[in-house]
Amino acid sequence: MTKVFIDGGAGTTGLNIVSRLSQRGDVQLIQLPEETRKDPAARKDALNAADMAFLCLPDDAAREAAAMVENDHTAIIDTSTAHRVAPDWVYGFPELQGQREKIRAGKRIANPGCHASGFISLVAPLVQNQAIAPDAALTCFSLTGYSGGGKKMIAEYEGGNRNPLLDAPRQYGLSQSHKHLPEMKALCGLDIAPIFCPIVAPYYAGMEVTVPLFAGQAKVSMEEIKAIYKAYYAQGVVHFVEETSEGNFLSANAFAGRDDMEITVSGNEERILLTARFDNLGKGACGAAIQNMNLLIGADEFTGLVV
What we know:
Elements lengths: L1 E6 L4 H10 L5 E4 L9 H10 L2 E4 L3 H10 L6 E4 L11 E2 L7 H7 L2 E3 L3 H15 L10 E7 L4 H9 L11 E2 L9 H8 L6 E7 L5 E8 L7 H11 L5 E3 L20 E7 L3 E8 L3 H16 L10
Parallel strand pairs: 1-2, 1-3, 3-4, 4-6, 5-6, 7-9, 11-12
Antiparallel strand pairs: 7-10, 8-9, 10-13, 12-13
């Protein structure tokens, strides 16, 4: 029985993980009463008593919580941005080349960002297979449901008399300093970060990340790109498909409620569209965290996942 503590279990990600793990017979949740939920001493005791700790906290609080662990037994999965490019942490995207083995052997796992998961799934295999140069100047736009903004944004979208501006998609991250950019650059082995255009839209969950390429940016044909994805994603919850059931459309919420990710390649030999679709709360957050936990504790990788 794996003892698990979720620090920050009252937030959107934490509540989702609590709900998922409560249904498993191989996990024992360590839960603090409401009056001590934020008490540092109680949290420290729980963190050190756990076999597995999830940090569902803001960045600074996640760093503080990680420092509270004073033993070599407790494994940590941090869902914040705090440790995603830290050299002594393993990036928790098992489908990346060699990453599954690193996660299994690790004790400090940085759960990927939602937008970053889509971008990395599309770009990393192509850079690794020399289909895109590391110095490529890339662009990425990403549609997400409002649940990715946490409790405050969910309340804004679902509250009464909401601002009419919320009825249409809204682009954000306009300063080009989005918190996911460092991991997008580092994990893909890029020399420069992409131009990144995230967009939140008035639906609850689901994500669609697209990287457009001109023919000159790719060193191989569109068919060769497809072949790279087919071979690269032969294992795990990421899969490549030739065609979708939607014809000439790609709905951003098609994978809401699921934990897998679908990769597609469309366009033509002059202008190519690389697209990843998944749930921002699934493979983009909680599903990825559960997948990483499964690898750490030696369980089947797909246990508790909807794929």
